[in-house]
What we know:
5 strands, alpha+beta
Amino acid sequence: MRSILIITTLAFLTLFFPYRCYSEIVLFKDGTVLDGKISYWDDSGLGILVNNSLREFSLSQVDTITNADGSPSKFDYAIQRFYLLKAIQQRRYGDVVSICNKLCVKLKEDKDVQYFCALARRFNGDDMARLAGYEKLVEEGYARPEVLNDVAYSRVIWGQEEQAQKLFEESLRINPKDKIVLKNLALIYLKKSDWKAAKEVLFTLVEMEPQNPLFLYNLGITYMGLEKFQEAEYIWRKMLVMDPALTYPKEALLFIEKKGSSNAP
């Protein structure tokens, strides 16, 4: 009898005093606040259950979403990322920077978001902040070719060619046909007299641009460094067939002739 009385009392209390267990607090841009449960969200909008009634809104109406205890909601992470990517797509770089400055901690730990924030600072006129952001990403092991290449270029400017080489090589592993990276690596290898590595890179460049005189000439230089004089001579003569007005292959062929005569018995 007592058990029946307790159950009846609980049912009465539930009916007239419904238990509120909402997990999110949504703050809208117009200042409106809703205490409810996120039912769904996607790029088109979100639905909020308030007192068992579904209310629908567009994402552009929402400012922030927190849990009941005030901590950032997982949905707030999605909303902020939505605004950030939308601003990036529309090239509103000033807005991107302002969004980046107030991102939640979880979103700031997202490496792709860090990249976009750094990139936006570049287009907003703060190139040093962009490079500092890229440097931090590289230190944390973020392997995106654009980031690796930009940091590598800065290393070349500062005379840190060993570090630049490692970064370019890492970038090339991701994108083996990046012509700009290949050219930069070729110059570094040639400067170090690393003829074998230079030949491999230049051979790839010549395959990409068979008529490029600079690539052909430097490939001939690598053959000279490897003491493959016939291969070097063949390439430079091929260049003169392509364009008889070129002077540097003529000078290189004269050097081979002199070297051959000096080595003659």
